[in-house]
Design goal:
With about 250 residues, the chain is an alpha+beta fold. About 30% of the residues lie in helices and about 15% in strands. The chain has a single domain, classed as Alpha-Beta Complex (DNA primase, PRIM domain). It has a four-stranded antiparallel β-sheet with strand order 2-1-3-7. A four-stranded antiparallel β-sheet has the order 4-6-5-8. About 40% of the residues are buried.
């Protein structure tokens, strides 16, 4: 993992300026709905983290575009959107969460699961310390996420694994729905209806994230090799555009 991971933060729409922040501090501030983070404003943090050279790249070029250096993976993320059908998104999120908890013998609060504030749900598994920071770590993350989704036959957004993808910050407000991205406990997720979840999202709900307390041997065989060959060939490049489409 990168010793002092940096991230970029966007306030407002994804066309707005990307500013370098300390990932750990920013992530915990949003999880805890710290007033200093201003959760009443739409906001994004980068899906991945970066060394200091990323900051120099952004300062020099004025953009995250074409960054080709190493990235770290603070957590594996799944984005499950079903436009116009939140019930279907909730159903698939339940299936994925139950699969991950059973397959990797997770405690109920190991997964960070939540309503995105709009079309679906996000699931995060904080296993970043398992994935060595490298120019291809985002591809390793993508392969692992797709492997899990394919095991149970659900569709996820595979576009969120670009190196410079913005990912909606926890507890921030969605600019269209005015609902917040809130965490939903696994046990509650398995029994709650969509309307009950969305009613709770009118306000941020603070929570304390935690790292996994034990090793998790979960990467499928050949993950790194497959990621750096097959997926990299599909993308045609290791860098990425200055992504405007958020998760």
């Amino acid at each position: 993992m990168i010793p002092t991971p940096l991230a970029f933060r966007i306030l407002g729409g994804t066309d707005n300026e990307r500013r370098i922040v300390d990932y750990g501090k920013a992530f915990h501030a949003y999880c805890n709905a710290d007033p200093a983070a201003r959760p009443e404003i739409p906001a994004y943090l980068s899906a991945f983290v970066y060394p200091v050279e990323f900051g120099r790249h952004l300062e020099t070029t004025g953009s995250t575009r074409d960054y080709r250096g190493p990235v770290g993976v603070p957590s594996t993320k799944w984005d499950i959107d079903r436009d116009g059908n939140l019930d279907a998104a909730l159903h698939d999120t339940r299936r994925l969460s139950a699969f991950l908890a059973d397959r990797y013998r997770l405690d109920a609060d190991d997964l960070i699961i939540g309503f995105s504030g709009s079309k679906g749900f996000h699931v995060e598994l904080p296993i970043g310390w398992m994935v060595e920071a490298s120019p291809d770590a985002n591809l390793t993350c993508r392969l692992f996420a797709e492997h899990a989704a394919n095991k149970i036959g659900i569709t996820i957004d595979s576009g969120v694994y670009d190196k410079v993808r913005p990912f909606r910050a926890w507890n921030s407000k969605h600019h269209k729905t005015c609902l917040h991205k809130i965490r939903v406990d696994l046990d509650e997720m398995l029994i709650s209806r969509v309307d009950a979840i969305t009613r709770r999202a009118v306000e941020p709900i603070p929570f304390d994230p935690r790292p996994l307390r034990r090793p998790l041997h979960c990467l499928p065989p050949g993950t790194t090799q497959n990621a750096t060959s097959g997926i990299a060939r599909q993308n045609g490049r290791h860098g990425g555009p200055d992504r405007r489409t958020p998760a």
